[in-house]
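Issue: copy button drops trailing tokens. Both records pasted manually instead:
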Amino acid sequence: MTDKGDFSQSSITGHIFRLAAPAFLAELVNVLYSLVDRMYIGHISETGTLALSAIGVVFPLISFITAFASLLGTGGGPLCAIERGKKNDQRAQAIMETAFALLIAVGLVLTASLLVFSRPLLLLMGANEQTIGYASGYFRIYLIGTVFVMISLGANPFIITQGRSTVAMGTVLIGAILNTVLDPLFIFTLGLGVKGAAIATVISQAASAAWATIALCSRSSSLRIRRLKIHKGITKPILQLGVTGFMFKVTNSLTQAVANVTLQLYSNGMDTLYIGAMSIINSIREISSLATSSVTSSAQTIASYNYGARCYSKDRATIRIATAANLACTLAVYAVVQIWPRPLISIFTSDEALIELTARCMRIFFAVFFMMSFQSVGQTAFIAHNCPKRAVFFSLLRKAMLVIPLTIILPRAGLGIDGVFWAEALSQLIGATATFSTMYFTVYRKLRKAKDGEALAV
């Protein structure tokens, strides 16, 4: 049944973990695109720490690009799933075709505009005279593959919506394997350094995009892309729902930029070291979030389907199981990061000073990481049930309304440079509590009172 995408039948736990397992591998492989770059770059002799800091400067702009893929993928995916739950495959296909056409169009616009303004943007993100050369060299090459990034990330939700999670895993698996093989070739063997890492990434993303396109155009797909067309009346709903994922990534990009600038102001000339530490911490956070993101992405698809099919008991079960699974994952990560940080950090650098600094800062950054399980489930429930206003608000709450102001205020309030890292922890505590409690009272309780088969709007 999972292969056909009918999530109203059989065990919800089984559906979640059947989708989550390959989704986890897909997420892992996807994260490896950037992580493998940082792993190799951080170990370049003599200039590794400097080059790693440069990648930390580029990171907010890469997040900005992926935000647009999230806008169209997480906006169109749940809508497509809801229509499939209603057995309205014609509209589901129109949603998918519209999103795919927009992915290509937006990717081309981003490529042109960011190439023109790349240097001033990198300086704004925290680059200095030491890092601007490395950062610019990497980013300008990376931009060549923007359309590939858009397709490989934005098309996958539509593959998962059809229950084809193993095919979705192939989208990123192909590219990540290529990236892992090509990185050392271009960086070390050919001596291209940071630019070599960018070239490897572009080639790998192109392969991933080709796989996703073939999968969605194939006759074996239950929903096929038959033409590139922006269907009337579909773009607005996609953007309204997808703006949550978009704002999350955009505010994450802005948060990193603010953090980099604040680290420069309070590091007493050690900004390169601190930005390098933040780059490693963000890399470890990406790895740490894989399990929860794969569970919530599969739960989102299943909840959307059952909401559309009016199977509210299955819908509620999806939320409960996702919450328990995410909490278990985040508690495990919290324990590992607090007790054994050095082995994780050593993956990215052999610089002892950087390892010591990162270990101290990372314990602060991850102080209440387990609360993110409630944040992710709350956000996912809002998106799955087509509640874009609430989803957008709580996405903005944690990043724009909490992290950014706290990053600016806490260092000035006596915490010094440690305040940059405490800002993340405090925002997780407040934001997750507000998001989950609101989701419970506005979505979950309505689902609990509703009977299967009756009309309901949350």
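Record 2 (pasted manually too):
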Amino acid sequence: MMHMKRSATAAAKKPLGVLILGRKRPGFDQEWNKIICARAMDALKDLGYTTVGAETPVVDDASIAQVLNRIRVAGCQALLMLHPSMGNGQLALTVAQQWPDPVVLWATPERPGDGKVSSCSLVGQHLWGSTLRQSGHAFELVYGDPDDNTLRAELVRAVDIARAVAVLRGAKAGVIGTHAPGFIDLAADPFLLKTTMGVQMHPLSLPQFIERVHAVPEDAVSKDVERVLDMKLPMRDVTKDDLPVNSRCYLAMRELMQEESLDAITIQCWPELPNMIGQWPYLAVARLSTEGVAVSIEGDVDAAVGSLMNCELGDGPGFLTDWLEHDRSTIFFWHPGMAPMNMCNPVGTEGGPTLARHFNITKPMVVDGQIRSHEGVTISRLWRCDNRYHMTAFEARTVPPRRRITGNMVLVELADAELERCGDVPRRFDRLVHAGMPHHVSLSFGHQVEALRRLARALNIEWWR
């Protein structure tokens, strides 16, 4: 069952472009046309959307150009198309020529019980959808009454997907250094990234980043250390004297993202950083992801882009993790202490975020913490192989772990229905590894498989289930 968690935040987004297809010649039930349009706009307002373009119906190329120009000037990232009465199907190609991103087609119902066809809205949207598909233009199609909660949830999801595509096509992902030594499955292809999703990969110098870390002003570091202390994080084998270095990392990454207009970032975190600056940057990474930043470690560019996708779909950056071990129905995930702290047990409780040393190169600063149990989660991954992009996602539930290790850990269990649909965990793992899936996956709270599948479809990314 879909939920409505995004509706409350829709108003904070950029405005939504709305095109209403009119008719040059009278036809169908124009009274119902007005009624259903008014109800549709009321529904969008209830969902928190500010709309642009719906004031004047479009009927030809010229009126479409005028309204789309206003929509673009307003900075809209998604376009919704209403067919209160079936109109000119040729105009689908006009819209496709002038709006490169997915179009959300909303088909509204017929007037109930009057004994005749009142709108042919679903027929019109079917026509547009077929035309857009045959012309290679992505779209999302929703159908239902404006007051229906299921329709409203589907509408929010469709708009989120359209916006995510627009964000990706203008996004910039920074990579500080390169992938970690030997982790060649994480190597990124900047040209494939650009041609598939529009994302610009921006390489950044690791030595220059280290210089930036050392150059952060002392007063800024002191203020940031106080902010960390205010989090009341327990400490094990570290003290507050260890905090300034990670504050420098955090501030340097924040500054770099702003300076280079980055939407996502990844960092080559070893072996250079613990040796060159004396610490792992994982407290900085955990803080950034807790704040909603799309960030990854070990130079995993595609994971950072996947994190940006999760953010745009409303589930936050997620926990980037290794697939450590599994049995028929469960998977144990682990990574070395950089998960979003708001995904862990509460601070001060057993398994809550604790500042500590890395288990391997025993230097500060990791954030040990157990991912919360009894949560519905989505496990996903975006990757490139065979000169194209692939994506997978499946749903599970976090359960109490059978054993505890340092770092971030979580045990997930797949439902019987999921196992019956796609096979047990070992078979799924075998299938995905043979598809080239890298050794990192992302775990997010919430169930977003269908949204990710549709996003993959909009971007022409091969989907694995």
